[in-house]
Amino acid sequence: MNTTTDETIVPALSRPELLRQSAYVGGTWLDVGEGPSIIVRNPATGDAIGSVPALDAETVRTAVSHAAHAFQEWRRVPAKQRARVLRAWHDKVIAHIDDLALILTTEQGKTLSEARGEIQYAASFIEWFAEEAKRINGDILPAAADGNRILVLKQPVGVCAAVTPWNFPAAMVTRKVAPALAAGCTVVLKPASATPFTALALAVLGEDAGIPPGVFNIVTGSARQIGDELCQNPLVRKLTFTGSTEVGRELMAKSATTIKKVSMELGGNAPFIVFDDANIPDAVAGAMFSKFRNSGQTCVCTNRILVQASVYDAFCHQFEHAVSKLRVGPGIADGIDQGPLIDAAAVAHLNELVADAEALGATVTVGGKSHSLGGNFFMPTVVRDVAPEMRLFREEAFGPIAPIVRFDTEEEGIALANDTEYGLAGYFFASRMDRVVRVFEALETGMVGINTGAISSEVVPFGGIKASGIGREGSKYGINDYLEIKAGVLAGAF
C-alpha cells in the first residue's frame, strides 16, 4: 500500500490499513503503480488524501470474470452460511465505526457525527440482509392438470454490477452489495471517484469477515470507461445504479444490448408541504433535517418547501431563524452542523440557481452566496417567493438552499408538488386525518414522509417513480431485484 499524501488521517486511524490506495479484484489488492491514477481530495481543504488506480477496460473485464467464476461457488453456499458471513461483516463495520467515519468525512466532507450515523446506517443493511438470506422462499402452486404440481424457485441472478455515488459512500455500497451477496450473487462495484476510500475500507472488513475472493470486487477509474464495460459485458446480469437521471438513462440504454436487469435510484425534486393544520414547530424541525442533512446533498432532500398562505409567514420566520443558527466548517471540526460541498462545480451551480431566482423576483432572506470560508463552502440559504418558472423550482439543487413557495388550497399544493418529472420522495405536515390520507395517496413519489422529515431506514422500501428510477432497495422487497424466478411443471408424480 502506498503512503497517503494526507499527513493527518493515517495517524488518527486505529487501523491505518483501512485506508487502501488500491482496487480490489478477485481477492487481490491492485495498488497504485506506474500506471494512471485518480487523486482523491478532501473537499474541506482541497488537499490530496491519496490516489487509486485508474483501471483499464481489460482489468474491469478481469474483475467480471473473477466474479463470474466465484458465483458458481457462492451461489451454492447455504443461505445460513452466507448469513453468517454477512453478520460477521456487520460486526466488523460496527467495531471500526470511528475509523470508517474519519475516512468518510475526510473524503466526502460531512460532519463526523453524520458520518458515524451513515456507518451505522450502512451496517444496518448488512444486518438486515443477513437475515433475509434465510427467507428467500419459493412456492408450490395448484396446477390445472390433475396429478401435476407447479414449482416456483428463486435463484440468484448472477454477477451484479453496482455503481454508487459520492454523497453516501458507505450506505449506498452496503444497500446494494448486502442484498446481492445474501441472494447468492457476486458483485463488481464502481464507487464514485471522489469517494472511493470508504468502499475500499468496507472491502477490507469484508475480507476479514470471510467474503471469499471474487465475490466482492471494487474497480476504480473512469466512470465512462468502466460503465461501458459493465453495461456491455454479457457476464454481468444485473446493473444497479444510484446517481443522476441523465446518467441513469444512458446506463439503461447501454445495458439494453445485453438485456440486463436494472435497478435505478435517480434524481429527485422532493416537495415538502406545510398545510394550515400543521404543527409549525414540528414542520420547521422536519424541514431542517430533511433539507440540510449532508449539506443538502441527498437525493431525498427537501428541494421545494410549499407552504399554505395562512401559515406562510409564521413558518418562514421560525425556519429562517433556525437556518441562521447553522454552523459551517470542516466536517472534522467540533460543533459543526454543515460541512463543504463536494467540489467547486457544486458551489457554482448553487450561485447560478440563486441568481436566476433573484432575477425572476424571489427574495433571499438567509445566506444566498458562497461562504466566507471560501473553497467548497456555501452558506445555508433560504429563498422566499419562489415560483414554478424559476430554476430553483425545477432543478435539483443538491445543496443547502431552501426555496419556499406559497400556495392557497390543498389542491394547488398537491398540483405544485407533482409538477415535476421526478418522483423519489415527498413530505407533508398536516393534522387532519382525512387530509393525511388524501395527500399520501395523491403525491406522485415512491416515498412519503408524513409529519416527519426522516424516512430512510433499512426497513423502508427505498426508491422512486417517474424519472426517479426503477426498483426498490432495503426492506424485505430489496432482495427481489437480485433474484430470478424459475417455474417448473412437475407431471405424473402423484
Automatic annotation (TrEMBL):
One of its GO terms (biological process) is gamma-aminobutyric acid catabolic process. Gene3D superfamilies: Aldehyde Dehydrogenase, Chain A, domain 1 (3.40.605.10), Aldehyde Dehydrogenase, Chain A, domain 2 (3.40.309.10). The active site is at 265. Keywords: Oxidoreductase. InterPro entries: Ald_DH/histidinol_DH, Ald_DH_C, Ald_DH_CS_CYS, Ald_DH_CS_GLU, Ald_DH_N, Aldehyde_DH_dom, Aldehyde_DH_Superfamily, Succ_semiAld_DH. GO terms for molecular function: succinate-semialdehyde dehydrogenase (NAD+) activity. Residues 36-486 form the Aldehyde dehydrogenase domain. The keyword DNA damage does not apply. SUPFAM superfamilies: ALDH-like. Pfam families: Aldedh. GO terms for cellular component: cytosol. PANTHER family: SUCCINATE-SEMIALDEHYDE DEHYDROGENASE, MITOCHONDRIAL. Belongs to the aldehyde dehydrogenase family. This is Succinate-semialdehyde dehydrogenase / glutarate-semialdehyde dehydrogenase. It comes from Paraburkholderia steynii.
